Amino acid sequence: MIVAVHQPQYLPWLGYFAKMDRADVFVLLDTVQFKKNEWQNRNRIKTADGWQWLTVPVTYTFPQRIYEVAVNNRDRWQHKQRQAIVSNYRKAPWWESLVPFIEEILTPQWDGLASLNIHAVKRLAEILGIETPLYVASKLPAFPDDPDERLIAITKHFGADTYLAGGGGRSYMDLRRYEQNSIEVIFQEYHHPVYGQLFGPFEPFMSVVDLMFNHGKESLSILRAGGGKG
User: Fold this and answer.
1) DSSP 13
2) How confident is the model at residue 174 (pLDDT cuts 50, 70, 90)?
């Protein structure tokens, strides 16, 4: 049984969902420290002029955890993002199929960043057809603060024997500690697939919505082509 863990990101890229798809259990780790100017409150879409950020403005005080971070609704971020998405994807082949999801995200007022991200990730997984059960860390028993001990404890909580780590984990994980706990660590090796996009040359590492607007029901099979379930 494979467990994967990742912070809840905003409209994540393909590799995030490939990791989820490969796991038997996926935990949204909203109990760790929020990192400014990373992927927890922003992601990228493709435009006629390259790519641009879609950013959720937040108010936070260091060192708040992700589930404690508030969305700054004084900024008209939803209006700005709706304009950007309409401008750049309204001519995409699968535009109509994803509009209801976009309205789910950009119509309600979200008070917490975690609730926004978790809702978006769950709905995107559902639309893609990924069936991996998702759990939210803040709804589970408390886990250690030490990063390795936390991941070991989460893996054991689900009775799993394998932890699926991101490729970058090799540089900071103490693999001996996992071995001592009879947990095998495997690393994601995701090779970004090339797919048809609007606006000229292919631009990798966009939000998964770019793939979904362009390829609809074929999105999961394209996503899997980079590595994961086949």
Assistant:
1) B
2) very high
* Mean pLDDT along residues 7-26: 98
Q: Which domain holds residue 96?
A: 2-224
The answer to whether the Cα torsion of 126, 70, 27, 171 is positive or negative is positive
Band the pLDDT of 167: cuts 50, 70, 90. Answer: confident
| C-alpha closest to that of 4 among 222, 147, 187, 191 | 187
Q: Rounded distance, CA 227 to CA 96, Å?
A: 28
162 vs 137: CA distance, rounded Å: 18
Task: Tokens 């780790």: give the residue.
Answer: 29
How many angstroms separate the most distant Cα atoms in the chain? Answer: 54
Task: Please compute the mean of the pLDDT values over residues 194-220 and round it to a whole number.
Answer: 97
pLDDT bin (cut points 50, 70, 90) of residue 228 is low
pLDDT given at position 37: 85
Query: Rounded to an integer, what distance in angstroms lies between the CA atom of residue 3 and that of residue 157?
Result: 10
Q: Which residues contact 2 (CB under 8 A, 6 or more apart)?
A: 22, 23, 24, 25, 160, 162, 163, 164, 186
Q: Mention every residue, 6+ apart, whose C-beta is less than 8 A from residue 72.
A: 57, 58, 59
Residues 6+ apart with CB under 8 A from 65: 30, 31, 32, 33, 34
What's the number of domains the chain is made of? 1
> What share of the chain in percent tops pLDDT 90?
94
Q: How many residues does the chain have?
A: 230
